[in-house]
Each structure stands twice: as structure tokens, then as C-alpha cells.
Amino acid sequence: MTCELENDDRKVTIRLVGRLDTATSAETNAKINSELHRIGVVDLLTCDASRLEYISSSGLRILLSLAKRYKGFRVIDVQPQVYEVLETTGFTKIMTVERAMRRLSVEGCRLIGIGGVGKVYRLDGDTIIKVFREGTTMDEVRREITLSKEAFVLGMPTAISFDVVKVAPSGETEGSRECYGLVYELLKAKTLSTYLKQHPKELDACARMYADLLFELHQIEVPEGGNVPSAIERERQQIEHIRRYFPKEHTDMLLHIIDSIPQGNRLLHLDLQTKNAMVQGGEAMFDNQQENQLMLIDMGEIGYGHPLLDLGHAYSSMVSLIGDYEKIIGIPRELGQRFWNRAIDYYFEGLSADVVAERKAQIEVVSCVRNFTWLSLSDSFPESVIQECQAAFGERIAKRFDYIMDICKTFANWTL
Fold first, then answer.
1. Longest dimension (CA), the chain
2. How many Cβ atoms sit within 10 Å of the Cβ of residue 152?
3. How far apart are CA 84 and CA 100, in angstroms?
4. Dihedrals φ, ψ of 5, to 5°?
5. Axis-axis angle for helices 307-318, 231-241 (nearest 10)
6. What is the DSSP string of 212-257?
7. Is the pTM here over 0.70, yes or no?
8. Which of 107, 364, 409, 416 has its Cβ near the most Cβ atoms within 10 Å?
């Protein structure tokens, strides 16, 4: 039995390796107490049990003592045989105990989506997996799970993850490390991008389904006090994050656009492009009049606010995306733009031509914010990508200052 303690800015991890039984408990307990006394102040104490093979009643008493002394104490990466003991003895109810995660590989799996926070692969016919970018923390993964469940309860048609796993490096990037992944069950589902490429003649029907989904989503009111965050506040934070790339007067213009958007309490996905919508149904859905629906994935950015912000984000992806459009969205840019134009007409169906024209202009202006704030999703984008965004900023915003200011004045006309 070995025991090591690691202190990272008052966040202490105890790593237990081997069998924590009667013969080893006294020595282990003494070492833990001695090291903790030497460290002094501890903000968070974690026991890494990934290599703990066995625990006896005397070992359990060590964990119980630590849980009583240190608020927030947790035992993580617990192997099945040890977890069973902790569950049977009731320890899982009196302290945080996390099972060891399955380890999967995506080698040979088909890549079906790429986003700012990770990639989505098809594992098999029934399941997909979202692999988070390297450096994503478990707290960030838990946040997405929480938001996904909250959105589902509110009525957003989303798939719920049933397993958190660790994903082995895929070999795409030399020196890459294990990442977290979320596994989703999606029976007979394919991305809307894939479906559009396979059935381009059904663009109109797909656009209608997509528009209906957006419209229904934007009718959902988010109650106060829940876990869904303010989309506007998050947008402001992202603008602050990208100030390192742009002159202050430029990012101030982005803030002005965001601050001009009216308040709202509607449920927003905030990344509803065609690779984040999964079509569930038959192979020839519309031709055969089979029942089908769109399920949403990638729930890490959902929030509440005014639909204008959500539509601006979608426009930024489907129309004005900066970067390799076909690689990111999964379809040719021309097809994606035609799809968006048809869908937004359906979304505003029944409104006067003047109102529709004004709202389309508002969406385009708001999309300019997302064109650049997506840089906040990672601090490891290549310099060439950053430079492309900096060049586009001048064309899309700086040169249109007066026009953008005039359009922002009209935002208040869009009442909910």
C-alpha cells in the first residue's frame, strides 16, 4: 500500500494505491495526517482511488474522518469493487463518491461534428459521443450535463447523456492527452447536415422543420432561479475575453450591439447550426411521410434571453461563418445559405414584409458579435485563424459603424 499527497494551490489530492486494509491503515492514516498538518490550509481535499484495489472497515474510518474534517471532501475514480463497498456501507450518501469512468477510443469512428469546445463522433448505430477539447475540466462537463437536463425538462428536444467517459488520444494531434467525453443514445439519427447532403431536394421540408423547432424553442419561458444562465451576461464575458485580439474601440462596438438587445426570458440554444441538430426517423423520411423529429446536441452554451441573440448565433454559423465552412458545418456554404434563407422565411411566416426585412437586418448585425466571440471558446486557436478574424472585423463592423448603430436603435421594436 502506498499513499502520496499532492498540493496544488491548497487543492490537495491523496492518491491511494493498493489495499487499504487493517495491516496498512494505521501507517496510511498517520502519513495523511502528518502531510495535511504540514500543508496547513486546505481549500479542497480529494482522494484519488483509481488504483485502490480494496478497502476494509479501518480504511473506511480514515475516509469518514477526512469527510468530517474537510468540507467538500470527495473520493473520485473509484473502481467497481471499492465503489460497491462504499455504496453498501452508505458512504455514497454522506460524501461525494465518483465511480471510475469507462475509457473509450474514437479511432476509426466517423467524425460528424466539430465545434469550439469539442468534436462529435458516431460510436455505433445507436450512440454518439461528444469529445471535449483537451483541458476541459470535469466541472465544465458537469455543467453541460446540468444544462442539458434543465433544457430537457423545460421542453427543448435534446438527447440526454447516459455516460461520462474518458477518451484516449485519437492520434490526430501528437502529444495529446485523455479527454472527457459524453455518450448519447440517438437511434437511427443523423445530423441535419448529412441529411441535407443526401436529400438536397428536401431542403424546403428540412427548413420548415428547423424553423418550427426554433420558433417552438423561443416560446419556452425560463423560470427565475434555475440553472440556465443569462445569455447576455455570457456574451459580455466572451467579449471581455477576446479584447486581447482587438482594439478596445472595436470590442466596445460589440458590447454596444449586445447591450442594445432587449431583455428576454426565452430558452436559447446559441449554437443551433445543422451539425447540432440530429434527424431521427427513417432513411427516406419526407418522401415516405414517416414521422421524424429534430433532436439537439451540444448543450454547453444554452441560456435565456431574447430570440434575436439565438438567431444571430445561428446566422453566424449558417451564413457568415469565418473559417472552413464545409468542415465545420458539414455542407457546402451555398447549400447552407439557401437552407438558412428558406428557414428564416418560415420562422417569420405571417409577419409583414417590412417587419421581416427589419428583423433580418437585426439578426445580421447581431451575428457580427458571434463571428468573433467564438474565439473565447479556446485559447489555443492558430494565429492564422485569429488574423483572419481580425481582418474580417474591419470589413464587417468597423467600416459599417453608422449602419450598425442605426440598426441597433431598431432592436427595441422586436417585442416578445
1. 82
2. 15
3. 12
4. -115, 135
5. 50
6. HHHHHHTTPBPPTTSSPPBHHHHHHHHHHHGGGTS-HHHHHHHHHH
7. yes
8. 364
Dist. CA 66–CA 95, nearest whole Å? 10
pLDDT tens digits for range 67-88: 999 999 999 999 989 999 999 9
β-strands 118-122, 127-132 pairing = antiparallel
Set of cell numbers at residue 333: 456554404
Closest by Cα among 322, 367, 364, 360 to 342: 360
* Euclidean distance between CA atoms 100 and 76, whole angstroms: 7
DSSP 162-231: EEEEEE---SSSTT---EEEEEEE-TTEEEHHHHHHH-GGGHHHHHHHHHHHHHHHTTPBPPTTSSPPBH
The DSSP bridge partners found for residue 182 are: 130, 164
What does the domain layout of the chain look like in residue ranges?
2-100, 104-185, 189-413
| Per-residue confidence band for 270, with pLDDT thresholds at 50, 70 and 90 | very high
Q: What is the pLDDT of residue 174?
A: 47
The topology under which CATH files domain 189-413 is Aminoglycoside 3'-phosphotransferase; Chain: A, domain 2 (3.90.1200)
Per DSSP, the three-state class of 42 is: coil
Pairing of strands 179-185, 2-8: unpaired
Mean pLDDT: which of 116-130, 205-219, 268-282, 386-400 is highest? 205-219
Residue entry with cell 426565452 = 266
Q: State which amino acid sits at residue 60.
A: L
CATH architecture, domain 104-185: 2-Layer Sandwich (3.30)
- Closest by CA position to 171, among listed 106, 216, 118: 106
Q: 2-100 adopts what CATH topology?
A: Transcription Regulator spoIIAA (3.30.750)
- Grid coordinates standing for 276? 447540432
C-alpha distances (whole Å) from 286 to each of 49, 165, 297, 332 are 51, 36, 22, 22
* Residue 166, phi then psi, degrees to nearest 5: -105, 135
Q: How do strand 110-114 and strand 118-122 relate by DSSP bridges?
A: antiparallel
Same fold for the pair 2-100 and 104-185 = no
